[in-house]
Amino acid sequence: MELGGCSSSSSSSSLCLQQLTALLRTEKNSCCVSTRDWSISSKKRATTLSSISTRTFSVSYRKFVDFALDETTSHTHLFSSPLQEKYNSLEPKDGKGEISIQSFEAAEIRLLRSLIIETETMQVLDFTVFPRAEYDVPIFCANFFTTARTNIVVLDLNPLHDVINQRHYKEKYFKSLIPLGLKYAELFPWGGKLTSESIKFFSPIVIWTKFNSSAEKYEILYSAFKDYYKVWLELVSKAVKETDESQISRNLEAQHRYLVWRAEKDPGQGVLKKLIGETLAKVDQI
């Protein structure tokens, strides 16, 4: 999303993209994660971080990630991504708050990656799921930034291909989802003007909103996250695996364009620099 005020240089991007790019280039080579194993690890995380989550915030995005992983493991087998251990122990340079990164793959999923940042003044969730290139399914994206007063939210099934000019793709994946988008459009205010560059990366059902923090809005957002993610999993489960090499290449190129856009427009780089330092927050351009 493009909120203004935070963009990377032509030679660098955020840590989020560092993980995404490296992981998307790595083949699946690790063990399967069962639902039971994930449940146990979730409980450990909740115990370890409960003091931070409750000290200044009445809400946490950890249950969003837990829900998504539980739902995913009910559809497919998840595998830990190769860089999981490398980033699992990442900590803010000032020693305040927590950074949690989870990275997985599956037969149909090229990368499932979540990044949660929790400090005394804010919470950030960056949750993205890429289908494998054999599927032209949209990219699931949840980018949430929360302080005690304000929330900035983008929740979407980012289209892999142009929904403005490619009517077939739009109808294939989004025609039946319009009622879902309208449901939450009535519950969340529109977040404001988007640039023409950003619009092409968003779907007709995008939730782009800003609102004051409240328990009620948090629960509505959680409901939206669950609905959107369940719909995304259904799209993946029904998708026909592509065998045409030229179409697979088009899908790969589309994912690459999305990553470049995120790298250049990611508004979280300033936050990451402050938390973990400029060196870790930078990588070479894709």
Written overview of the protein:
Belongs to the HY2 family. The structure is a single chain. This protein has 286 residues and is of the alpha+beta class. The chain has a single domain, classed as 3-Layer(aba) Sandwich (oxygen-dependent coproporphyrinogen oxidase). Helices cover 42% and strands 19% of the residues. The chain has ten helices and eight strands. An eight-stranded antiparallel β-sheet has the order 1-2-3-4-5-6-7-8, sandwiched between helices. A hairpin with a 7-residue loop joins β5 and β6. α2 (35-55) runs antiparallel to α3 and α3 (62-73) runs parallel beside α8. The radius of gyration is 18 Å and the shape is globular.
Mean pLDDT score: 79
CATH architecture type = 3-Layer(aba) Sandwich
> What gyration radius follows from the Cα positions, in whole Å?
18 Å
**DSSP strand count:** 8
User: What's the story with the biggest beta sheet?
Assistant: 8 strands, antiparallel
Overall helicity = 40-55%
CATH class bucket:
Alpha Beta
Overall structural class, as computed from helix and strand content, comes to: alpha+beta
Unreliable stretches covering 5 or more consecutive residues: 1-57, 282-286
| Order of strands in the sheet with most strands | 1-2-3-4-5-6-7-8
Distance between the termini: 18 Å
**How many helical stretches?**
10
Number of domains: 1
List the helices and strands and how they pair.
Blueprint: H1 15-24, E1 32-33, H2 35-55, H3 62-73, E2 78-80, H4 84-88, E3 98-105, E4 109-118, E5 123-131, E6 139-146, E7 150-158, H5 167-173, H6 178-185, H7 196-199, E8 207-212, H8 215-238, H9 245-265, H10 269-276
Antiparallel strand pairs: 1-2, 2-3, 3-4, 4-5, 5-6, 6-7, 7-8
Helix pairs in contact: 2-3, 3-8
